[in-house]
Amino acid sequence: MKHFSLILGITLCLFSIGLHAQSPAPFMMLTHVGNQELEGQPLTWTQDEMLLLGRDGQLYTFPPKYAEKSKKTGTVFRGYSIMEMRNRLREEFDSSFDVSHSQHFVVAHPKGVWSVWAERMESFYRSFTHYMAVRGFDLSDPQVPLVAIVFRNKTDYYNHAAKGGTPLQPGTLGHYDPSSNRIFLFDAGLESDQDWTASIDTIIHEATHQTASNVGIHRRFADQPRWLVEGLAMMFEAKALWDPRATHTQRDRINYGRLDDFRYFLANRPADMLPKLISSDSLFRTSAVAAYAEAWALSFYLCETRPKQYCEYLERVGARKAFSKYPARQRMADFARYFGSDFTQLDADLNRFVAELK
């Protein structure tokens, strides 16, 4: 009876109105799981597991039997305000941290000159959304404040990640965590007495992931082709795409690091590289550097030569249902819908395009 009552407290309002477990609930709820008070929108659930989108933007997963004192708190999802999120971060981090904010970002950082990070992130957000909007995207405002955590140095950054169960590869300068919806990084420029742009490629890359996942370009909780997600982020590493003061020739839009990688692997590049890349994420596990190079080259080629189809394809993939799988056959069909199914010709066109880049 006790087990049933705990489940009932969190699921009564869901099942009593006959909602399907794959449909987000049309309301917010407040519940207590252990020593945590959670408020947000149930996204999907079973008798054994619930996934709740918190008002802070984090995804919380827990068995309903551990939830207590559950109640409905609103008819639609409403994220925390900027000031509410700022106050929560002040409580989360110790007194050595301060919290700054801009229109869309709340940034926890060590006290001192690190406060500039909020405006840096906001400046990128403006550049990114402008670039996508002028190409026809109907962007949405983020449902929640975008959170970034900036650590004083690499040691603090790595230690925090390890404590949270996210061991980092050597050389990592920052990462976006889709589950928490946060960017984590450290200021490599300040640590090494260099300009902050010492780590700009990583920062822009991760900020692209976060922003695209919150303005309607990528579907955060749906399976998205990794080549498409990473390709877009690598395109924005080029200064012309994020710095409004930069010139905007094609040369300025090239990611020369990835171009060099693509050309390095060209001699041994398999004839079926494109179908492999498009149909599966496996190349990123078996040949990561080559996969990233291919993802950038294909994304840049499509965006430069077929921008309308590229944006329509992004929109179709970004509209996929939350928590849905994306099998190889459907991935190939969606790609072919916008770019055709003649991969031999596409491969030839891509190689010709890349060969002409200077």
Write up what this structure looks like.
- The protein folds into 3 domains: 2-74, SH3 type barrels, CATH 2.30.30; 82-212, Glutaredoxin (3-Layer(aba) Sandwich), CATH 3.40.30.160; 226-355, Neutral Protease, domain 2.
- 46% of the residues lie in helices and 16% in strands.
- It contains 16 helices and 10 strands.
- The chain has helices at 2-15, 82-92, 117-133, 154-163, 188-191, 200-212, 226-235, 239-242, 250-253, 256-265, 273-279, 283-286, 288-305, 307-318, 328-339, 343-355; strands at 28-33, 36-45, 50-54, 59-62, 67-74, 97-101, 105-110, 146-151, 174-177, 182-186.
- Strands 4-3-2-1-5 form a 5-stranded antiparallel beta sheet, with helices on one face.
- Helix 10 packs across helix 13 (288-305) and helix 14 (307-318) packs antiparallel against helix 15 (328-339).
- The longest helix has 18 residues, at 288-305.
Task: Provide keyphrases for this structure.
SH3 type barrels, 16 helices, alpha+beta, Glutaredoxin, 46% helix, Neutral Protease, domain 2, 358 residues, five-stranded antiparallel sheet, globular, 3 domains
Q: How far is it from the N-terminal to the C-terminal residue, by CA?
A: 71 Å
* Total individual domains: 3
CATH homologous superfamily annotation of the largest domain: Collagenase ColT, N-terminal domain
Q: What is the CATH T-level topology of the largest domain? A: Glutaredoxin
Q: Indicate the structural class.
A: alpha+beta
> Could you say what the CATH architecture of the largest domain is?
3-Layer(aba) Sandwich
* Rg result: 22 Å
Give the beta-strand count. Answer: 10
Order of strands across the main sheet: 4-3-2-1-5
How much helix, percentage-wise, in residues?
40-55%
Dominant shape: globular
CATH domain class of the largest domain = Alpha Beta
Stretches where pLDDT is under 50 for at least 5 consecutive residues are: 1-8, 15-20
What is the typical, i.e. mean, pLDDT? 89
Number of helical stretches of at least 4 residues:
16
- The proportion of residues in beta strands is 15-25%
Organism: Bythopirellula polymerisocia
Pfam families: DUF1570
Domain DUF1570: 200-322
Signal peptide: 1-21
